[in-house]
Automatic annotation (TrEMBL), chains A, B:
Its cofactor is pyridoxal 5'-phosphate. Pathway: Amino-acid biosynthesis; L-leucine biosynthesis; L-leucine from 3-methyl-2-oxobutanoate: step 4/4; Amino-acid biosynthesis; L-isoleucine biosynthesis; L-isoleucine from 2-oxobutanoate: step 4/4; Amino-acid biosynthesis; L-valine biosynthesis; L-valine from pyruvate: step 4/4. Pfam families: Aminotran_4 (PF01063). PANTHER family: BRANCHED-CHAIN-AMINO-ACID AMINOTRANSFERASE, SUBGROUP IIII AMINOTRANSFERASE. The modification N6-(pyridoxal phosphate)lysine is found at residue 193. It comes from the Bacteria. This is Branched-chain-amino-acid aminotransferase. Belongs to the class-IV pyridoxal-phosphate-dependent aminotransferase family. InterPro entries: Aminotrans_IV, Aminotrans_IV_CS, Aminotransferase-like, B_amino_transII, BCAT-like_C, BCAT-like_N, BCAT_family.
Amino acid sequence: MRSIHVDTGVADALAAFEMPQRLGFGVLMAPVMYRCQYQDGRWWDAELMPYGPLQIDPAAKVLHYAQEIFEGLKAYRVDRDRAALFRPQMNWERMNLSARRLCMPDIPRDIFMQAVQTVTAYCEDFIPRNSGQSLYLRPFMFGTQPDLSVAAANSYSFLVIASPSEVYHSGSMRVLVERNDSRAAVGGTGAEKVGGNYAASLQSVQATLAKGFDQTLWLHPSDRRHIEELSGMNFFAVMEGELHTPALSGSILPGVTRDSLIQLARALDITVHERPMDIDDLLALIKSGTCTEAFACGTATIVSPISVLGDADGQVYELPDTPGPVARQLRQALLDIQEGRGSDRFDWMSPIPPECYP
Amino acid sequence: MRSIHVDTGVADALAAFEMPQRLGFGVLMAPVMYRCQYQDGRWWDAELMPYGPLQIDPAAKVLHYAQEIFEGLKAYRVDRDRAALFRPQMNWERMNLSARRLCMPDIPRDIFMQAVQTVTAYCEDFIPRNSGQSLYLRPFMFGTQPDLSVAAANSYSFLVIASPSEVYHSGSMRVLVERNDSRAAVGGTGAEKVGGNYAASLQSVQATLAKGFDQTLWLHPSDRRHIEELSGMNFFAVMEGELHTPALSGSILPGVTRDSLIQLARALDITVHERPMDIDDLLALIKSGTCTEAFACGTATIVSPISVLGDADGQVYELPDTPGPVARQLRQALLDIQEGRGSDRFDWMSPIPPECYP
Ligand SMILES: Cc1ncc(COP(=O)(O)O)c(C=O)c1O
Ligand SMILES: Cc1ncc(COP(=O)(O)O)c(C=O)c1O
């Protein structure tokens, strides 16, 4: 393993940390963080530090041109002796796709794995052990070079912070179809986990909440007809017992949960269709009773049933089965693996190597 | 005027600052910066501080969801006793359009003006006095709330930093038509000065340079046919002595320089067409000799003639007049106003109020 410098303040930070009664999602930050910096064409020594403010030059590229990418994955300890990560390899690979899209250096596998494993190991005592809870890990990287020209930076910080969390959304969701705004263009950054996609989505997220819905459903930015995804989740619908999800269009994030559910469904003999899904067709199929279930999925939320799809014209389309049998079955199968109850038949769980512990 | 706290280090920072021989663009940072913070629903006291690193929480929204906007404007001192800003009101208005698009609070006019005026006043001695040089001012604002949910922040920093600069691009430019990537979607953030647009453009900027060109020419993200703009400049072409520029499509930045050139051209009896401009038509018109000039404009570059348009298929289209008579005439008319030689007939120059000086 790469050497890592453990800051002298880490032990005190760990000792001083107290777990509150209520966790929420992504609000409570774990007491340590990992940082590795890239400069002069190479990665320098990694540090584990107490969680705390970063020093950033006011002209750093990240603050002006949003040269920033991130990932999200979880460490589980429910029904486990020691913590385990869910499919970290997928997040590492996707993070490097994001990095390339924004002209950032690749993150070596050993740095990424050291980062998520070490933060998890040091925080093991703070990983909640009730079903649905976990340690949410947030790897991120941004350009630090202070220079106002529109060009890629020559220096970067890669960090991992973590948050002991509940699921992002519990219960069922009311979802509003977005007919005007887009989160990313064709030829843009929609297939990558890039800060700008989320900035572009905020206006719709806010309007959606104001209208009494929980989440925006995004359509294809050019044809304005095909379903893409939600702001932080992929979309599924169930018709006659079969699963339908938008094909990866190039502007959709290829979700790790989406991929996992597709594999699980097939293993459970549920037919899965990855295909372009026209929103008007879907709404008609809900109305006619052919589409009985819809749900969203993602690392933060796992599987969240959708109770209602609302359209911009004020029409609402209720899904009769909420939570429906397919969503429930898939959610349970996935959680059973993540939470150590089911057999890890796909080899998805990644234990923390002993040398990562303090 | 709003009260402003001048940090005790400012005098020393100013005294220690040395102007180098070569300036470049946006590389040399002026020794002071302005900051005003927004929290609990209101703006707090402003500070003028020595230029230096900011403290940012690792979970701040800006580092993950790119909730960040910026502006660019210039203070001129060529042929002037005291510094003057070019159309700062336009930048203030546009910055608030950007703020609204990203669900950020409006910046009050007095804060914006105090910021750009005070930084200019304190840096007056560092505003270069050769034609084409100026003090480039960079107002920017970002979300600081530490919270990983995809939602607008409840706290913000607004800053102004500055850079004594040359023009961004001198001489003529070779411009490459981008047929694949997009910088912003229809329904996205292309009409606003939002970090994510620039992150999305980096890949094309880099590929363009690698192919021996200077700038990317962006097309409409959905129709892939109509010309939008360059990565930091608007686009103009001259046909039979008349000026043509893409109409504001909703995904183009409404440039202050673009607006100024349109006004200047009309005052000089040059006919101006703001209209959708098809790239293939334009290339054909260059080939046939009808289109004789093309140029780009923006705060950083002022007016930059385009010598060549290259297409993705390898074809190159040379503009016979580089720099052409219309570009030269407009550039001179604009610089004469900015640099205090011509009469300020449109009332564009904004002097710094005496109370802003140290
Ligand atoms: C836009 C978007 N879509 C989908 C997802 C779901 O992906 P994953 O299952 O990898 O978490 C996420 C986030 O995680 C996301 O940000
Ligand atoms: C994308 C883009 N287009 C055009 C411009 C030109 O606008 P202005 O003339 O206001 O500087 C800029 C920058 O300034 C820009 O970033």
